[in-house]
């Protein structure tokens, strides 16, 4: 079946690969024939100032590859290290669309502003809603790391220290 776009891009830390991340990736592979996945480098993660520990890049890369392989998507994916929020989107004229969550949509708009300055055409922005947990609040890695929920968004009774 022909996809809406030939090449799309998606990015993130993908720490504690959870249902929200998987939904984002599902959308990317649903609309794109080829998916460029930007995975935040360890150095970039430090700059983000996350309020919790983040697994090392090689662990997050492994988990991502396992997920893609299980779905038969690995051959359609290219994974690149991200050292900033923009990655190859400011130099690659072949990317047609960005797949983002509602929370990261402002970054996609900023990418399009910077692309215009670089004389690149704007990217289509495909936005998905945040994936809700059992109590209807979004699934976040921070909440998983705190022991509030599991990777599927099921609430847990016991909290772990961060």
Q: What does this molecule look like?
A:
There is one protein chain. By secondary structure, the protein is of the alpha/beta class. The protein has a single domain (5-130), classed as Rossmann fold (3-Layer(aba) Sandwich), CATH 3.40.50.620. Helix content is 32%, strand content 20%. The chain has helices spanning 19-31, 42-48, 57-70, 105-117, 141-145; strands spanning 5-12, 32-40, 77-82, 97-101, 124-128.
List the helices and strands and how they pair.
Elements (H helix, E strand, L loop, with lengths): L4 E8 L6 H13 E9 L1 H7 L8 H14 L6 E6 L14 E5 L3 H13 L6 E5 L12 H5 L17
Parallel strand pairs: 1-2, 1-4, 2-3, 4-5
Q: Fill in the CATH topology.
A: Rossmann fold
Q: How many DSSP-defined strands? A: 5
* Number of helical segments with 4 or more residues: 5
Head-to-tail CA distance between termini? 44 Å
Main features:
alpha/beta, 5-stranded parallel beta sheet, 32% helix, globular, Rossmann fold, 162 residues, 5 helices
Quick recap:
By secondary structure, the chain is of the alpha/beta class. Helix content is 32%, strand content 20%.
């Amino acid at each position: 079946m022909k996809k809406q776009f030939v090449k799309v891009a998606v990015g993130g830390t993908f720490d504690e690969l959870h249902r929200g991340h998987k939904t984002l990736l599902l959308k990317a592979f649903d609309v794109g024939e080829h998916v460029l996945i930007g995975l935040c480098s360890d150095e970039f993660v430090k700059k983000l100032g996350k309020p919790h520990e983040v697994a090392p890049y090689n662990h997050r890369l492994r988990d991502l590859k396992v997920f893609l392989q299980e779905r038969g998507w690995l051959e359609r994916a290219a994974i690149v290290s991200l050292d900033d929020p923009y990655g190859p989107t400011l130099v690659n004229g072949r990317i047609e669309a960005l797949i983002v969550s509602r929370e990261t949509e402002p970054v996609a708009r900023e990418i399009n502003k910077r692309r215009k300055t670089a004389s690149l055409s704007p990217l289509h922005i495909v936005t998905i809603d945040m994936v809700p947990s059992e109590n209807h609040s979004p699934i976040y890695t921070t909440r998983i790391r705190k022991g509030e929920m599991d990777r599927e968004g099921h609430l847990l009774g016991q909290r772990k220290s961060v």
